[in-house]
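It is worth pausing here to work through a concrete case rather than discussing structure prediction in the abstract. The textbook approach is simple: state the sequence, then state the predicted structure, then interpret. We follow exactly that order.
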Amino acid sequence: MRRPSKGQHQHTKKHYRKAVTHTHPNFTPPRQQSPELAANKRKRQRNIIWFNPPFSKNVQTNIGREFLNLIKKCFPPNHKLRKLFNINNLKLSYSCSPSIIQIIDGHNKTILKQNTPPEEETTPKHCNCREPNNCPLKGQCLVKEGVYQATISTAESTETYVGLTATEYKIIKCHSNTRPKRMTPN
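Step two, the predicted structure:
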């Protein structure tokens, strides 16, 4: 079949428009969009449903394959809900949420806390030295916001130093070289 020339096309186009406007006076022919306008046109966003099973190393089954097989089995091509539930709309992603055991343990803890009476407040400790008898602050090294005094003696003079702390005055002696050492008062 031979392709019509440009002149024949224009001639046929005129007769076609004349016939259409004669039968339908308000008819306007559709215009083709330019490629630029078609590219800028907003596209409808797909509705995707995510299935997020909790991850476990103990599971040997390929959950992704089983999930997709269930979709194919439960929603065959002639099913009325196939439009909504198909491989393109349902996605699988392992979640980073807590495992079932962690959820159950957390729930059990909250229930046990509600059912147990509140513990009596214990008196705060003032010293946690390994040898309380040798505490440099006489059993008061964990007291907050304390004022302290030290006497410094040299061969030539004796001076008194007074200081204050906003936090606990606990003297830390490091047992390893990895931690920075703090000076101990005399």
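Step three, interpretation. The chain has a mean pLDDT of 77. Helices lie at 6-23, 35-40, 63-74, 100-115.
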